Amino acid sequence: MNLEDIKAVERLLSTPQKIVIIPHKNPDGDAIGSTLGLWHYLRQKGQEVWVISPNDYPKFLKWMPNNDQIVNFEKDNSLAKDLINSASIIFTLDFNHLGRVGQMQTILEEATATFIMIDHHQAPSDYAKIMYSDVMLSSTCEMVYNFIEFLGDTDKITPEIANCLYTGIMTDTGSFKFASTTSRTHNVVANLIDNGANNTEIHNRVYDTNTPSRLHLLGCALKNMVILQEYRTAYITLTQDELDTNNFKKGDTEGFVNYGLTLEGIYFAVIFIENRDEGIIKISFRSEGDFSVNEFARDYFEGGGHTNAAGGKSEKSMSETVKYFESLLKITSIK
Predict the structure, then answer these.
(1) CATH number assigned to the domain covering 212-329
(2) DSSP bridge partners of 270
(3) pTM assigned to the model
(4) C-alpha distances in Å from residue 15, one per residue of 5, 12, 123
(5) 3-state DSSP call for residue 168?
(6) How does strand 48-53 pair with strand 71-72?
(7) pLDDT digits 0-9 by tens, 209-234
(8) What is the 8-class DSSP label of residue 265?
(9) Based on C-alpha coordinates, what's the Rg of the chain?
């Protein structure tokens, strides 16, 4: 953030505000961690604050401090709309285009509040009055830490804030193995641990809690994996019937796409997941090296994200989507 934006935020927060914090649809660890971390911080400053999620999120994130205070837009629609309409400030975290909030898009476009964006994805839109956007940072949680530091309040980081922010940094860096992990990231994490983040417990809650049905679904996914060595690519498909057979719950497929990248010589990994209710194939892309899945997703699958991690969608059938994807590999250079 530049000095002008920091001063503007300080002026806004110097008086009582009604604040709403919003993550993207289908929020992940970084989205929930950053919104709750900011919620705890702003509450400390005496503000009236609410987190409104566009929809539900995975069970393995529901241990975070005060996650029960999050308003689900789909389930508590009237309350959510009232809070948005009465808000004086709206923070949007971990996304940079209002199209990422699903059914909330229209009401946010009509809101009169001052918008503040905190996000690390590429190609931000200009809906926010104050934008803290940096694609070089590991996670939105690292950015929220920086935001607190910009305001001179790192001494206000409680164990609750530390646990929330640590979770998002850990998940969005792939447990600190992605290239976006810098020495600064490790310094932030060290400070969070010093302030009460229980790194071992967080890792166990997020990664080491499975159900039989999730492991069966993973077995199905790995059985479906197609390896295209000539294109240095591996992809997985999961149909709605396969999800239903294995009692799929939100979050069960988290991390499945990364298995392709564990294969020698594979630099591009993809998972195609059918969502019959929405009439789409949801797609996650991962890569290693210089191949930009962000550009690939934007160019061909109405998506985007980061250089090595992105998402997209297709309204074609699973077979048509996969056939189209394979045709693209013939004109794509993957190194």
Answers:
(1) 3.10.310.30
(2) 235, 285
(3) 0.92
(4) 17, 6, 32
(5) helix
(6) parallel
(7) 889 999 999 999 999 999 999 999 99
(8) T
(9) 20
CA nearest neighbour of 179 among 129, 240, 147, 136? 136
The dihedrals phi and psi of 10, each to the nearest 5 degrees, come to -60, -40
Burial class (CB in 10 A: 0-12, 13-18, 19+), 14: exposed
In the chain, CATH 3.10.310.30 covers 212-329
Which single residue is written with the structure tokens 């934008």? 131
Distance CA 89, CA 118 (A): 13
270, 277 contact by CB (below 8 A): no
Q: Which CATH architecture does the domain made up of 3-207 adopt?
A: Alpha-Beta Complex (3.90)
Could you give the residue ranges of the DSSP H alpha helices within the chain?
3-13, 29-44, 77-86, 105-109, 140-150, 159-172, 183-194, 199-207, 212-224, 240-245, 293-300, 318-329
Q: What is the residue whose two structure tokens read 């993809």?
A: 270
CB 121 within 8 A of CB 305: yes
- Structure confidence by residue, pLDDT tens digits, 307-316: 999 999 999 9
What distance in Å separates the CA atoms of residue 50 and residue 56, rounded to the nearest whole number? 16
> Is 105:203 a contact under the CB 8 Å cutoff?
no
